[in-house]
Amino acid sequence: MKPIVTWVVLADARNASVVVNRGPGKGLAVLEDKAWSAKPATGFSSEAGVGHSSAGPGISAVDQGDPQEYADQVFAKEIARDLEVSLARKDFDRLVMVSGPHMLGVMRKALTPPVRGVIVGEISKDLSNVPLDSLQRHLDDIIAT
């Protein structure tokens, strides 16, 4: 019988990686080929954009958005695409998302329905720098390691 493979995505706004559990009693192992680094946020010009009114001579400032938020969204989409491909190849059966609250929300929006369908748990805390043995304690309630 094939063991149930659970991937745990550990992410912050700049880096993400995957650790894997290959069934009860197998513990956690780092997947070396599943690591991502975000490209730095590129700033917009310091001047606000200007929008012209179609109903008269008025103009108004136009918000250019937040470059860091945009970079976070691009990074989350990159991770989501890779997870979707890996799920289609049946590289994993279940998924656990572990990230700080902001990045977890951004990643939720980027994930496709098939990937969302295999999520068995989320931890809204940045544990990306926690050693594997300590990380296992955080995950005990979600997966049987």
UniProtKB/TrEMBL annotation:
It holds the Pfam family Host_attach. Residues 43-65 are annotated as: Disordered. This is Protein required for attachment to host cells. It comes from Roseovarius gaetbuli.
